[in-house]
Amino acid sequence: MSEQQRPVVRLLAAAAVAGSVAVLATGCSVVQRQTGDAWAVTYEVSVDRPSGAELSDVRVEGAERRGDVPEVHRLGSEETGAGDGDGSLWSHDTIVLAEQRASVRATPGAGATATCRILLDGKREIARETSVRPGGVVRCRVATPAFD
Q1: Largest Cα–Cα distance of the chain, in whole Å?
Q2: Bridge-partner residues for 108, per DSSP?
Q3: pLDDT tens digit string along 95-123?
Q4: DSSP letter at 98?
Q5: Which residues, 6+ apart, have CB-to-CB distance to 139 below 8 Å?
Q6: What is the four-CA torsion angle of 61, 53, 85, 133, rounded to 10 degrees?
Q7: Closest by alpha carbon to 49, among 107, 88, 91?
Q8: CA 140, 121, 66, 64: dihedral to nearest 10 degrees?
Q9: Rounded to whole angstroms, how far apart are CA atoms 60 and 58?
């Protein structure tokens, strides 16, 4: 091998190693999404208005199905259904891997106050927030716990 060819060979070898690492890293994340510990997460937003109250700019974070890439889903406008007492409720289910971020945000109509909750397996509350002012955005964001 000539002296002129050595830098080219080194560059090609470095590129091959970098490409292999990228492929392995991508493959590992796919396997993690398929087989890693994951929570069934329920996002809830309750509003101090009767059923049929509108929520705008609704966003949730997670995967719609096991193995999907987690992302922020912009759902736009959603309508609440019957809730407990005088309020109304909207909910959405998703999948979030253990120790990853779960989040929901929504804006209630003018004059309405909203509360968001994040539940694991539909039961265990891990986050709760109430909008600071009527008509203001409500956000819940938390890292899901590790499995025991």
Answers
A1: 83
A2: 55
A3: 999 999 999 999 999 999 999 999 999 99
A4: T
A5: 103, 104, 105, 116, 129
A6: 70
A7: 88
A8: -40
A9: 7
